[in-house]
Amino acid sequence: MKQLVVISGKGGTGKTSLVASFAALAGRAVLADCDVDAADLHLVVQSSLVSRNDFSGGKRALIDGDRCTDCGTCEDLCRFDAICSDSSTFSVDTIACEGCGVCVWFCPEDAIGFVDTIDGEWYFSETRLGPMVHARLKAAGENSGKLVSLLRTEARKAARIRNIDLVIIDGAPGIGCPVIASITGADLVLVVTEPTLSGLHDLERVIRLTSHFGIPTKIVVNRYDINEKIAVQAEKHAQKLGAGFAGRVRFDPAVTQAQIWGLPVVEHSSNGAAADITEVWNNLQEAFDEDEFYVSEA
Fold it and tell me: Using an 8 Å Cβ cutoff, are 27 and 159 in contact?
């Protein structure tokens, strides 16, 4: 089973559009939208929901009013000011509570317990391009890295059950915990960048991250013709940092038109950006065949 993860240094680089097109070109793959803070792959691949599941990212303290003697120990010990009290009643502010457990451990009456929090939902859907797992965090929902790990596990499970040998992951932007969880166990990471000065900076941060974990990495410059000079700089800089080059994709209004129709651009057109993306996909397939890339079961 091979795992391709598509990430970017920031949002809006075209990462999800490329993933949708790759899925169409692959013909048979499991999709995982691991950008759980802003999941939108389902909008482009026309998904049909099969199952909906609650996600718990952690626990929160809960005071049993019948056992509480209003001693105030929990309020004194809480470093996050999550214990609320009026003249005679104590309660927990679930937004402020970090689930550290100090109040639970030191309550003299054992009146405080831990309860699971529901921080979001994860879904299993069917699409024209293959099964897909995706999720959505609630407002202020926590532990998106844990949710991403769950989605990756479910994607691999679906691939094994259906005997599909490719998982394509739409990762989160940036270099934080959701990104690290997205690229764990990847056989190849594709970094989508754009030809801007901030894009150069973001690109370097992401490549250094994948290099730290020893994951083979290639880059693609999206909308390269907006500033071809910086596009060339990005390619050269990426190669100096040890990343390969997968190709360029031109700016093309057909991409937006395809999104309006809920289609990957390679199903909407065969020219322009669609042709560029097809070439990038062919380069990625060749990369998977090289000896330097391993097949991960992590």
Answer: no
Question: In whole angstroms, what is the distance from residue 165 CA to residue 187 CA?
Answer: 12
Alpha-carbon torsion (150, 185, 179, 167), positive or negative? negative
**Which class is domain 2-56+120-289?**
alpha beta
- Written as one string, the DSSP assignment of 130-142 is EEEEEEEEPTT--
- Between the two ends of the chain, the Cα-to-Cα distance in Å is 10
Has domain 59-116 been given CATH number 2.60.200.30? no
Helix, coil or strand: residue 5: strand
Query: CA torsion 158→159→164→170, rounded to 10°?
Result: 100
pLDDT at 232 exceeding the cut of 70: yes
DSSP the chain: -EEEEEEESSTTSSHHHHHHHHHHHHSS-EEEE--TTS--HHHHHT-EEEEEEEE---EEEEE-TTT-----HHHHH-TT--EEE-SS-EEE-TTT-----HHHHH-TT--EEEEE---EEEEEEEETTEEEEEEEEPTT---HHHHHHHHHHHHHHHHHHTT--EEEEEEEESSSHHHHHHHTT-SEEEEEE-SSHHHHHHHHHHHHHHHHTT--EEEEEETGGG-HHHHHHHHHHHHHTT-EEEEEE---HHHHHHHHTT--HHHH-SSTHHHHHHHHHHHHHHHHHSTT------
* pTM (predicted TM-score): 0.87
In angstroms, the CA 121 to CA 291 distance is 39
Domain-by-domain residue ranges, the chain? 2-56+120-289, 59-116
Q: What local confidence, expressed as pLDDT, does residue 180 receive?
A: 94
What is the average pLDDT across 207-230?
95
